[in-house]
Amino acid sequence: MNPQPQPVLVARTPTAPARAWIVLTVLATAQFLVVLTTSIVNVALPDIGRGLELSSIGLSWVVNGYVLAFGALLLLSGRLGDVFGRRRVFLTGAAIFAAGSIAAGLAPTAAVLLVARVGQGAGAALLAPAALALVLTVFPAGAGRARAIGVWGAVSGIGGVAGVLAGGLLTGVFGWRAVFFIGAPVAVAVLAATMALVPADLPAGGRIDLWGAVTVTGGLAALTYALSVGGQYGWTAPRVIAPLIAAVILLLLFAGSQRRLSQPLVAPAVLRIGGVLGANIVMTLLGAVWLGLFFFLPLYQQKVLGYTPIRAGLTQLPLAIMITAASTITPKLSRHLDTRALLAAALALLAAGLARLARTPVDGRFLTDIAAPSLLVGAGQGVAFVLLTARATTGVPAEHTGLAGGLINTTRQIGGALGLAGLLALTTAGGDAGNRSTPSHLAHTYGTAFAATAALAASAALLTVILRDRPAAPSNDQRAEPVQPPAS
Fold it and tell me: Rounded to an integer, what distance in angstroms lies between the CA atom of residue 265 and that of residue 487?
């Protein structure tokens, strides 16, 4: 067995509060950008489909190409940050993301667009875990970190809504290509600000589990593909069965390898810390709810209610406002209330709002059928994202913060990719193809999707009550933290 690299001790130097919050602003902007990029295309999907002649399955891969590359590479990216330095990996991700955004905006064909979206997802995967790990380094455990995590959760929740809003405005005014171009200047600005303001960290060294990275990425990609085309080709078709079998084999190989390696991609010990495992399980379901909502809601508004892209985007404002308000007050609520009960209540509220959206009347009205349920959804999402992010990182030693950041982002993104694929399989199965484009049929289809997301949110609430945290691991010395590769 190879000897473990010796920890690199990084002495804590006092960080001025103002400087710490400036660093948080830069890193949170990056997180906002990668979340926004998931949903900013949703309002533009009808225009993209017409412009590049894409089917509904093809359009789903405009979303899933980004989400799957993002989610499948997050674990590897978190490990890369621990080994080579989080700031260095963050800067690399920002550059790749900017290049992918420009390529997507210029894409002349559907194939080029899908490849560019994968590139965006790869850049986002390098950004996200490194950014969260840097935040946890800048803010030691305590009230300051709690507020920082509250901001992080708020940004994660608001980003999805802001994407729909910005997507509607950009598509309506400049056309669908603008929703991709907008990411490039923001990514470049984040890159420049990071180089100027975010202090460098010392890389710990170590090895990269390439076998684990290949097997988990391939397994998740095969599983998502099979789910996305199962409803179209039938679940017994060879083109569906083959990737399902491949996914099972690859994911079993990945799980087995993590127990044997001295420096695995996912250190099993981290999953035994506090509420890390439970938070990631629940975040998987919440990711499916989140992506499903922002995929189907703009379609319902435009294809059934006849909204323009601009109007569809502007009607997301109640949801955005509620997510912001709920995320802002969550740290204060968590100091006075039991966080498990608060999280379960938030998820139940989310389920109630989605169940109300599932009515999807053909003659739906904004106030009663969009705004009212959006307020419930926003309150539930805002609280849940903050609490789950906190639970997934609480008690994690400094040497594992990159992995913890990668895990919680992975479960959210992979949950979203698998959830969207499953929802599409559910909504495209059966029915008379000749009647699928009528408003009444589309309303029923989108209602089915919202009902399924409501069931997922209710299941997440139930799991929150059932799953119990493990005893918290002892915290490290606050004055010097060992930084080393995750070890089993």
Answer: 9
